[in-house]
Amino acid sequence: MPCCVRRPLRLFPHARALRNTKIRHLSTPRAPGEPIDPLHYAELERINRSRRQGVLIWAGGATAAAAYLFFWPDEPKAAPTKTNAPLSPSYFTPATISASETTGPNSKLIQLTFPPHLLKSSADDSFEFRPIWSIYVKDDAIQVERAYTPLKGIDQDGRMEFWIKRYPDGEVGRWLHSKNVGDPIEIRGPVPTWSWKENEWDEVVMISGGTGITPFYQLLHHVFTKEPSESSPKTRFTLLHSSRAPDQLPPSTMLETLKNYSRSQKDRFSLRLFVDSRQSESGSSHIDLFLTEGRIGKAEIQHALDPKTSSGWGKLFGSKPSEPEKTEKKVMFLVCGPDQMISAVAGPMGRNLRQGDVGGILGEMGYKPEQVWKF
């Protein structure tokens, strides 16, 4: 037990710095499209509760107890690093950058490879790898981590591919963009962000902006590629994606895959792409894709819920829209992107990383919390 305040602060500077770093990370706004790790909310609550208790005891005059609770550093809770260990959300383990390709002004496709012999079981069959899940990547230089969603999950060779943008205030994104093929990276996961359930919904409408498309790409890849025979034909999917300009759209390989899904699964999947402006459009990579100039609004969301016009582009090419469905459908809206877009479409996230009330366009349309999930 310390006899005064100064001694533990002098003896344990690294532990105190670690706690301050954790608080900074847990309180920092999420990057666009970054999923929520429930462990972060619990840890932030624990730290705040510990601090409140320390302040109350100090006010009560128990000086020695206050010094212990408030100033004595907690046992470090940062996730440790383990080598030669399976993937786990509770600790970091090494992976390697196996490919890196520039795809836009500030974006890259980055492939990480994890030792395949360390996979707990078949990644295709394991429940923990069912969509939608992410991994956390740690910038070991400043001890900050961010979550990223593998586009196609993880394959039998331990490979995961990510579409990562470099944002001015994104420490980990900038750090990843500076890395080269062969560099080691520490990761932890998988961390589930939303649970896909077969036969649960008649319609799943996905609304994304920027790199917020990545969790939806993972879901569609799973449904249409990994397990097409098991996938229920009951559920229809619509993806409404928005980017600032054509050169900021997802990479052509992603767009081509989505376009192929819309052709081969035309009764089950519809795709619409939106850009704020077409002024920077150049090249031919997006010429054969129908781009709508403008933002995703109420009319576009209502159109997505009309199965006849949304699947065949009937409205765009002159056919009459069908009457609304008489029977009530089970609809789920998934929204992922920059905070401003999420707020406009579904209302802001709640405090302490909670979902919050449904607001924005979906709130005006009368949808309830169980019908909306914000990433």
From TrEMBL:
UniProt cofactor(s): FAD
Keyword Lyase: no
One Pfam family from the record: NAD_binding_1
Keywords on record: FAD, Flavoprotein, Membrane, Oxidoreductase, Transmembrane, Transmembrane helix
The UniProt record lists the keyword Secreted: no
Domain FAD-binding FR-type: 90-197
GO molecular function terms listed in the Swiss-Prot or TrEMBL record: oxidoreductase activity
Listed InterPro entries: CBR-like, Cbr1-like_FAD-bd_dom, FAD-bd_FR_type, FNR_nucleotide-bd, OxRdtase_FAD/NAD-bd, Riboflavin_synthase-like_b-brl
UniProt: FAD binding residues: 146, 148, 165, 172, 214
PANTHER family to which the protein is assigned, alphabetical: NADH-CYTOCHROME B5 REDUCTASE, NADH-CYTOCHROME B5 REDUCTASE-LIKE
Family (UniProt): Belongs to the flavoprotein pyridine nucleotide cytochrome reductase family.
Name of the protein described by the UniProt record: Ferredoxin reductase-like protein
Source organism per UniProt: Heliocybe sulcata
Lineage, uppermost ranks: Eukaryota, Fungi, Dikarya, Basidiomycota, Agaricomycotina
